[in-house]
Amino acid sequence: MKIYLDDERETPDGWIRVYWPDEAIELLKSGEVTAVSLDHDLGDDERGTGYDVLLWIEEQVAVHGFPVPEMRVHSANSAARKRMESAIQAIVRIRVSRILAATTKGRLLADIPSGRFRPFEEGCKPPKAGDIVIMDQGFTGPDGEPMGLIYGKDSSGKTVFEAEAYDQEIVPVPDDPDDAEFLAKHLNN
Questions:
Q1: CATH code for position 93
Q2: Same structural domain for residues 72 and 119?
């Protein structure tokens, strides 16, 4: 479902029109909303603005892990538009942080040199680009760059190596496909 919050403009095809923030929030609570397009000035600031919907989304994402719909601003109020776009960026940052905090797997983007590799099993080879590894604690490397410990497991789940990887050598791989899609869209934006 796509929600269009506005008091004057014509509702685009395929969107559900609401006039007040509380109506938009009730629909958002259903968990079925995939997109919101928000106006700021709705004719009665006492009843709220489009910014109030973003404040509600932000709280739900931060506190409850609420799924983030696609968010747009169509307000002609330039100052309010800028504030609302900043709120959208904050919501995206919170969601990305929550996903990354819950993600333990990563895909290597580069081969790990033997100097940063410690095998636990005889004959274990250093991990290569494309391998999926377990990400562990981060730290600052000897050159001041961010790094993290990574582990490899065999098919039985036994840990067979430990290595150090620079952050730019690994990309997180969330278990949830929706989280993976969200990261792909927003991680480097």
A1: 3.40.50
A2: no
Per-residue pLDDT tens digits for 133-181: 999 988 999 999 999 999 999 888 899 999 999 999 998 999 889 898 8
Please give the Cα distance from 184 to 9 (Å, whole number).
33
- Residues 121-131 have pLDDT tens digits of 888 989 999 99
Q: Tell me the H-state helices in the chain.
A: 21-29, 50-64, 78-102, 177-186
DSSP 8-class letter at 137? E
Q: What is the mean pLDDT of residues 42-56?
A: 94
Pair 4, 39: CB distance under 8 Å = no
Question: Is 181 within the bounds of a domain?
Answer: no
How far does CA 145 lie from the centroid of its chain?
A: 23
Q: What is the pTM of this model?
A: 0.79
Side-chain-facing half-sphere of 166: CA atoms under 13 Å? 12
Are 103 and 95 in contact, with CB atoms under 8 Å apart?
no
Parallel/antiparallel/unpaired status of strands 146-153 and 132-140: antiparallel
Q: In this predicted structure, what is the pLDDT of residue 102?
A: 86
